[in-house]
Amino acid sequence: MIFDGKIWDPTNMLDITKLRLAWWVKSKWLDHNTSITNFIRAPSSTLARTSRKQTKSKVSWECPPIGWLKFNIDGAVRSCPGHLGIGGVLQDETGAIKLIFSKKASWGDANLAEVLAVRKAMVLFATSSWVNSNNIIIESDSKNVVSWVFNPSKALWSSNETADSLAKSGVNKTHDL
């Protein structure tokens, strides 16, 4: 290769490329401890970390306060959309299990499964003997459902009023539209 009147040997070009790449890696990943020399000798044997493993923080279950019961609920879906399953466990302030449920639900996505699990927990509590003597905490791992419970106007269905009214009117129809 001839550049600027000079003949460049392919080996020299490769060495220059490796050197520049090594310096780039050093500047990009400051905590990368491979030497420039090792990188030039065997670039494929040196790996730069492109992402750090995120460790899940372990959250332990906490008992509800005295006079309260806690329903831990969850929803599951096989594929999206797919068959849904919901489950929950109701415990008192000592951690004693008062009630459990696990059932097949309808067809849909993960958000629907979580909403159905919340609904089932509320229905079970509302029809139980504990409703008159205890308050309820419903705990879910679904950020969407928790935000919808506290701010229903932000739920996905709030922007779907036309389809919602069509669905409601469809309940009473004898023939499809």
From TrEMBL:
Supply the source organism's classification.
Eukaryota, Viridiplantae, Streptophyta, Embryophyta, Tracheophyta
Put simply, this protein is called RNase H type-1 domain-containing protein
The Gene Ontology terms for molecular function here are: nucleic acid binding; RNA-DNA hybrid ribonuclease activity
**The organism sits in which domain of life?**
Eukaryota
Q: What's the source species for this entry?
A: Theobroma cacao
InterPro entries in the record: RNase_H-like_dom_plant, RNaseH-like_sf, RNaseH_domain, RNaseH_sf
Q: Signal peptide: which range, if any?
A: none
Which residue range or ranges hold the RNase H type-1 domain?
Answer: 72-154
